[in-house]
Design a protein that fits this description.
Rossmann fold, alpha/beta, seven-stranded parallel sheet, about 15% strand, single chain, about 50% helix
Length: about 270
């Protein structure tokens, strides 16, 4: 590393180049106010990454961001269905440092015990959040990464539901998460020439409020019996998977769906 005197003698251009190489590495983490998203933000921050944390729950998001290790993290409150705000998010990330990736976990689940109970509002709320907003956010991040010219990585969250069709009244959610897998594969092909990798993570039975919400104790026990490892995952176990996929350790992985279900899915 050059000393300050070396930089002074090298002139302003060299000082600017050295400063640029030391810009913080930034990852956008959506759904960061709780559950797996909060764990992902914490794990990446502990690895030295600057986090732009995104969620609709402003107070809870602020609490998560204030607890992150390191500094420079940003709490950015938004409903990602507001597509015109995505560019503002890219500008926020650019101001924080060098954007290197996206961990996209924000999603909406409305359980309905019967398909006859599903309303058009239920469909729109889940598909607009889980699939439509995801595509346009992925596209915005890809555009920012292409402009920087150094590649990057995107990790989108699907669910075991993309394969099983959903359990516990989650048919519409499953449809949206199946779309995430197909979309991510298409983006992986489209963005590979730019050095941008796109993968998905399929969690199974994870101990989060969204996962357990609306399920009876009997349903929870039935779900647990589907898992060969016999237990729920901790959110931190998904966070380590995301950290791997965003890292150079996964430099030859794109278009993949990582099954993190304790053996519930085997493919």
């Amino acid at each position: 590393m050059p000393s300050p005197s070396d930089l002074d003698s090298a002139g302003p251009a060299a000082r600017e180049t050295t400063a640029a190489t030391h810009r913080p590495r930034v990852v956008i983490v959506t759904g960061a106010a709780a559950g797996i998203g909060a764990s992902v933000a914490s794990r990446l921050a502990a690895d030295g990454t600057t986090i732009v944390a995104v969620d609709v729950n402003a107070p809870q998001l602020q609490t998560v961001v204030e607890a992150l290790p390191g500094g420079g993290h940003i709490a950015w409150t938004a409903d990602l269905r507001e597509l015109d705000r995505h560019e503002e998010l890219m500008q926020t990330a650019a101001a924080a440092g060098e954007l290197v990736g996206l961990a996209h976990l924000a999603a909406h689940l409305r359980r309905r015990t019967s398909i006859d109970e599903v309303t058009e509002s239920d469909w729109d709320a889940q598909l607009d959040t889980n699939l439509k907003a995801s595509f346009f956010l992925n596209r915005a991040v890809a555009g920012a990464l292409i402009e920087q010219g150094a590649g990057g990585a995107i990790v989108n969250f699907t669910s075991q539901a993309w394969w099983t069709g959903g359990i516990g009244g989650a048919v519409v959610y499953a449809a949206s998460k199946g779309g995430i897998v197909s979309m991510s594969r298409g983006l992986a092909r489209a963005l590979a020439p730019h050095g941008i990798r796109v993968n998905t993570v399929a969690p199974g039975f994870v101990e989060t409020e969204m996962m357990l919400g609306g399920l009876s104790e009997q349903q929870i026990e039935e779900f647990r019996r589907l898992v060969p490892l016999g237990r729920m995952a901790a959110p931190e176990e998904l966070a380590s998977t995301v950290a791997f996929l965003l890292s150079d350790e996964a430099s030859y992985i794109t278009g993949a769906t990582l099954n993190v279900t304790g053996g519930q899915l085997m493919y």
